[in-house]
């Protein structure tokens, strides 16, 4: 470190459409695939830091997964005599030099040198979007493609899905919903919130004549951290309940089986319907306080001929 040179650490929030990327993490070496982190670090080269800037990502997302708000920390060391960038200038500079239109830096904060974007997160929320009434792929508006999981079914038994989600709330061994390759040392996680609800405004991209057929739904999950592909596996099981292929009580049995290779829990919902919605920290951005465990949501009519909470 040069005399008088100061290294400043920042927390940055950023968003991206994951369609074009091999996940958020940087892809190193001479490969055709590329991650969101590659573009962020390329933009950071223009900051002229004495030491190359590396992003430490809070939450890794797979290829095709989107983020409304992910987070990372980075260190910028300016040359001697130059003050650290203000968070506002850093945000503007990164956005100016980003070469991919599907990535945007939202906000930055100065943080202590010991701050760690992954370890310090107090809450992570994922959103999964579903569409029903899509009997053929060409019936989904082009603006919604790669933004939701299009189901052929005309409706979902939402009451049964909510009942099933209750079994997932709390602290459990979630290894039944963990894919191989997870770096986690323990499969125990605490799921604070699991909700199933209709999108309040449906989709702005659906034509009036299609609005009766197409409906959009949101599943949200909140925890301090998740296992590898846990959210997509839980989503797949809850969709199976909504379609009548599973009863709500069977979700509890799947959870307690601790078997990731079972018939239903081994299925993984498509990546393109998943969004990382929020990563929260104490004192930066929105402060993450205790979240009540609740599924008190508006009533949704069951599919015709279904009893609330039952399968087909």
Strand content: 15-25%
Look up the CATH topology of the largest domain: Alpha-Beta Plaits
Extended strand count: 10
Distance from N terminus to C terminus (CA atoms, Å) equals 67 Å
Domain unit count:
2
CATH architecture of the largest domain: 2-Layer Sandwich
Derived structural class: alpha+beta
Q: What is the approximate shape?
A: globular
Share of helix among residues? 10-25%
Overall mean confidence score, pLDDT: 88
CATH class of the largest domain: Alpha Beta
What order do the helices and strands come in, and which of them pair?
Elements: E1 7-16, H1 36-44, E2 56-57, E3 66-77, H2 87-97, E4 103-111, E5 123-132, E6 149-150, H3 158-166, E7 170-173, E8 188-198, E9 215-223, H4 230-242, H5 248-257, E10 274-280
Parallel strand pairs: 3-10, 5-6
Antiparallel strand pairs: 1-3, 1-4, 2-3, 5-9, 5-10, 7-8, 8-9
Characterization of the model:
17% of the residues lie in helices and 24% in strands. Residues 287-302 and 304-312 have low confidence and may be disordered. Strands 1, 2, 3, 4, 5, 6, 7, 8, 9 and 10 form a ten-stranded mixed sheet that branches. With 312 residues, the protein is of the alpha+beta class. The relative contact order is 0.18. It is globular, with a radius of gyration of 21 Å. It has helices at residues 36-44, 87-97, 158-166, 230-242, 248-257, and strands at 7-16, 56-57, 66-77, 103-111, 123-132, 149-150, 170-173, 188-198, 215-223, 274-280.
